[in-house]
C-alpha cells in the first residue's frame, strides 16, 4: 500500500512537540530572502534560458479587488465598491502581459492559467472577455484536454451566468472559498455564503461541465468549535467537491490589519485547533479523500493525486500543483513569478504598480537569483514536501554530490526525528513515515540554509505555526 493511500497516523504528543513556526515552502528560498537589489537583467536572462529549455508556461493573474473585507484575509487586496477601478488596472495588466510576450518564445505552450485575488469575479463579464482575449492573442494556450484553466470565486457573490461566461472563455476548473457554514463564525469574520448558495452554484458548475471543483475551508476561526466544524464538513462532503483545502487560520494582526477586527478571545485554543484538524482529516479520509499534504485533499482519481503517484507534483505560490515542468509567469500587483532560476515579485502597492506600467517598465519590486546550492536545496525540499521521500542516487545523478557526506550536518539534525518514528534514513535515502507526514514542514526546515543561518544569527523571521 502506498504511503499516500494510508490513513494518517496521528500522534498528538509528537505533533505538540514539533509544532514550531516555520515556512510553508511555496518557494525555496522563501520570500524573506527576496531583495530590491534584484536586476531586470537577471530576469531577462532567466527568460532566455527558459526559452532555450522549451519549458511550458503557467500564467497567474492577480485581480486584487473585493466588494467586502474578510477579516481573516492575508491576501493583497483592495476593498472597494467602485467597479470603475477595475478596467484601468486590467488594461495595465494586459500591457504587462504584452511586455512579457515580447520576451518569451511565442511558441511556448501555456498549460496552466489561474485568476486569483482578491475576488476575480469582481470584474464584469466584458472585462473578463477583454483579459482572456488579450491572453489568447499574446500567448499560445493549450486546448481544454491539455490545459488547466482555473478561477477563484466567492460563492456568495457570483452568478451562474457569470460562471457560464467564464466556462465559454475556456475556464474548466473552479476554486471556491467556503471557509465555514456556521452563521456565527461567518459574522465574526464578515464572510457570508449560505449552504443553498453553494449547493445551487455547485450544481450549475457541474451542469456547465467544469472539470474540477475545489472548496477551501479554514479551521481555527473565531467562534469555531468542533461541533460547528463537524456540521460544515458534513455539508461539504455532501456537495462532493473534487478537491478540498483546509487551511490553518494564522492570527497575525501585526502583519494583516484586517485581522485586528477579530476578537482574539473568540479564537479557539491551540488544543482545540488540533482536535479540529484531527477530526477533519479522519472525516475526509473516511469520505474517500486522500491527504495530499499540507492542507490539501483530493479524490484518488483527481489529477492532484495522480500527479503525486507519478512523482510529478510540485509546490508553488498557489500551493500544490500538477505541472512541475512549467515556469510560472505572474501578472499584476504583488504577484510572484518563478522562471528558470529566479523569483520575481511585482510592486506590492497598486499605485507603484500602475506608475511603473505607465512608464513602460516591468513592474519589478523584488527578486532573487538562485545559485547552485539554492537549486540543490530547492530540489530536496520539493521532493520531501510533495513525495515524502528523497532518493540519494537521484540527487547524486542530478547534482554530482554524495548526499550522505554533503548533508552530514542535516542528517544529524534529522536523527531525533528518526528516533521518534517520523522518518527513516538509510543508504538509499530519506523516507518520511506516516507519522511524520503532518510534520513535513519541520523536516524540510532542516535543509533550509537561510533559516538555519537566521537562527544562528538570532534573526527574527515570523512564520505561522506548522499545525
UniProtKB/TrEMBL annotation:
Involved in the heme biosynthesis. Catalyzes the anaerobic oxidative decarboxylation of propionate groups of rings A and B of coproporphyrinogen III to yield the vinyl groups in protoporphyrinogen IX. Belongs to the anaerobic coproporphyrinogen-III oxidase family. Residues 51-290 form the Radical SAM core domain. Signal peptide: none annotated. Its main location: cytoplasm. It catalyses: coproporphyrinogen III + 2 S-adenosyl-L-methionine = protoporphyrinogen IX + 2 5'-deoxyadenosine + 2 L-methionine + 2 CO2. It is found in: Cytoplasm. This is Coproporphyrinogen-III oxidase. Keywords: 4Fe-4S, Cytoplasm, Iron, Iron-sulfur, Metal-binding, Oxidoreductase, Porphyrin biosynthesis, S-adenosyl-L-methionine. Its cofactor is [4Fe-4S] cluster. Pathway: Porphyrin-containing compound metabolism; protoporphyrin-IX biosynthesis; protoporphyrinogen-IX from coproporphyrinogen-III (AdoMet route): step 1/1.
Amino acid at each position: 500500500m502506498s504511503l499516500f493511500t494510508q490513513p494518517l497516523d496521528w500522534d498528538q504528543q509528537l505533533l505538540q512537540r514539533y509544532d514550531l513556526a516555520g515556512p510553508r515552502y511555496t518557494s525555496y528560498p522563501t520570500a524573506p530572502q527576496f531583495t530590491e537589489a534584484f536586476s531586470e537583467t537577471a530576469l531577462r536572462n532567466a527568460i532566455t534560458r527558459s526559452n532555450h529549455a522549451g519549458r511550458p508556461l503557467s500564467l497567474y493573474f492577480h485581480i486584487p479587488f473585493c466588494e467586502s473585507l474578510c477579516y481573516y484575509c492575508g491576501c493583497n487586496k483592495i476593498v472597494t465598491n467602485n467597479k470603475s477601478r477595475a478596467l484601468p488596472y486590467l488594461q495595465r495588466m494586459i500591457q504587462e502581459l504584452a511586455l512579457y510576450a515580447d520576451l518569451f518564445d511565442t511558441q511556448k505552450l501555456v498549460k496552466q492559467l489561474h485568476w486569483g485575488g482578491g475576488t476575480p469575479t469582481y470584474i464584469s463579464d466584458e472585462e473578463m472577455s477583454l483579459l482572456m482575449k488579450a491572453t489568447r492573442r499574446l500567448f499560445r494556450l493549450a486546448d481544454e484536454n491539455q490545459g488547466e484553466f482555473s478561477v477563484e470565486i466567492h460563492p456568495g457573490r457570483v452568478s451562474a451566468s457569470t460562471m457560464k461566461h467564464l466556462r465559454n472563455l475556456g475556464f474548466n476548473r473552479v476554486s471556491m472559498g467556503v471557509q465555514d457554514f456556521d452563521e456565527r463564525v461567518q459574522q465574526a469574520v464578515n464572510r457570508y455564503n449560505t449552504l443553498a448558495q453553494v449547493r445551487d452554484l455547485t450544481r450549475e458548475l457541474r451542469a456547465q461541465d467544469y472539470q474540477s471543483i475545489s472548496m477551501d475551508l479554514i479551521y481555527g476561526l473565531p467562534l469555531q468549535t468542533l461541533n460547528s466544524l463537524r456540521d460544515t464538513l458534513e455539508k461539504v462532503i455532501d456537495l462532493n467537491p473534487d478537491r478540498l483545502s483546509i487551511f490553518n487560520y494564522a492570527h497575525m494582526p501585526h502583519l494583516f490589519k484586517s485581522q485586528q477586527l477579530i476578537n482574539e478571545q473568540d479564537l479557539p485554543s491551540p488544543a482545540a485547533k488540533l482536535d479540529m484538524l484531527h477530526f477533519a482529516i479522519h472525516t475526509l479520509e473516511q469520505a474517500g479523500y486522500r491527504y495530499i499534504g499540507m492542507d490539501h485533499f483530493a479524490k484518488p482519481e483527481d489529477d492532484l493525486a495522480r500527479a503525486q503517484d507519478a512523482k510529478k507534483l510540485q509546490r508553488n505560490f498557489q500551493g500544490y500543483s500538477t505541472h512541475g515542468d512549467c515556469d510560472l509567469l505572474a501578472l499584476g500587483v504583488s504577484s510572484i513569478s518563478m522562471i528558470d532560476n529566479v523569483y520575481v515579485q511585482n510592486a506590492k502597492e497598486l499605485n507603484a504598480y500602475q506608475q511603473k506600467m505607465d512608464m513602460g517598465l516591468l513592474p519589478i519590486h523584488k527578486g532573487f537569483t538562485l545559485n547552485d546550492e539554492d537549486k540543490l536545496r530547492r530540489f530536496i525540499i520539493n521532493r520531501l514536501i510533495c513525495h515524502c521521500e528523497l532518493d540519494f542516487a537521484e540527487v547524486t545523478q542530478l547534482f554530482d554530490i554524495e548526499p550522505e557526506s554533503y548533508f552530514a550536518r542535516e542528517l544529524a539534525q534529522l536523527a531525533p526525528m528518526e528516533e521518534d518514528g517520523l522518518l527513516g534514513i538509510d543508504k538509499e535515502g530519506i523516507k518520511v513515515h506516516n507519522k511524520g507526514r503532518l510534520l513535513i514542514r519541520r523536516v524540510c526546515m532542516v535543509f533550509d540554509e537561510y533559516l538555519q543561518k537566521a537562527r544562528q544569527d538570532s534573526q527574527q523571521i515570523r512564520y505561522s505555526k506548522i499545525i
